[in-house]
Amino acid sequence: LANPHRMFLGQTQLADAFAKAQLHVDALPGEALLNAEDPYSSNNRPAFDDEIWDLSLYKEKLYLYWGPVPALLIAPIQFFTGIEVTDIFLVYFFFCGLLIVNSLLILNIRRLFFPEISAKTALVSIFLLGFILPIPWSLNKPDVYEAAISAGQFFLLGGMYFAICAFDNRINKWLLFFSGLFFACSVGSRAINFFSVLFLTLLILYWILKNQPKPIN
Length: 217
Hints:
By secondary structure, this protein is mainly alpha-helical. Helix content is about 60%, strand content about 5%. It has 9 helices and 2 strands, in the order ααββααααααα. It has helices at about 10-20, 30-35, 70-80, 85-115, 120-130, 135-140, 145-165, 175-190, 195-210, and strands at about 55-60, 60-65. The protein has a two-stranded antiparallel ribbon. A hairpin with a 2-residue loop joins strand 1 (about 55-60) and strand 2 (about 60-65). Helix 4 runs parallel beside helix 7 (about 145-165). The longest helix is centred in the middle third of the chain and has 27 residues, at about 85-115. The radius of gyration is 21 Å and the shape is elongated. The termini are far apart. About 30% of the residues are buried.
C-alpha cells in the first residue's frame, strides 16, 4: 500500500512524467520488490512496504495503468506553475462537469422529446443525478481510480450531449467533432468505456445515414 502522504498523486506523478517526456513515473519500485524471485507475479512474492499504488512494474520502472487524459490536461498547469494538481481536485472538477453535462442532457431531452414533463420534475431529476452512485463514494475516496472514473464519465456523457445537439435541426459537423473528441477522451481516461463509445458511435452513424437524402451519396 502507498504511504498516506503519497496517495492521491497518481495523475500528478504521470503529469510530471509527461512534462519530462517520459512515460514512467519517478517513483522507485523499491529493493524488496526488485529482489523478489519473480517481481511480476504475486504468487510467493514476499510482502513489501513501498509507495506503489495503481502502478505496474516493467524493466525496473513503474507505469500508471490508468488512462493518460487527466494527466495530459494537468501537465501544462503543473509545468508552468509548479503547483501539484492532485487526484482530489481532478475528481471534484470532473464530477462538477458531469453534473453540468447531465443537467444539460436532461433539459435538452425534455425540450426535444418530453415537453409535457414539468420543469419541477426535471429539476428533481437533476438533484438526484448529483447524488447518484458512485459519485458520493468517489468523492469520499478521491484517488487515481476515481479520477479515471470521473473523467471517463464526464467525457462520455459530454460526447452524448454534443451528439444530441448535433441533430437538433440539421447535422452540425462542429458539434459532431466535439462529440467525437469527448468520446476519444473518455476512452483515453478509462479504456473500458470503449464499448460504450463503440455503441454510441454506431448509433450516431445510423442517425447520420437516416438524415441523408436518398439515395445516399
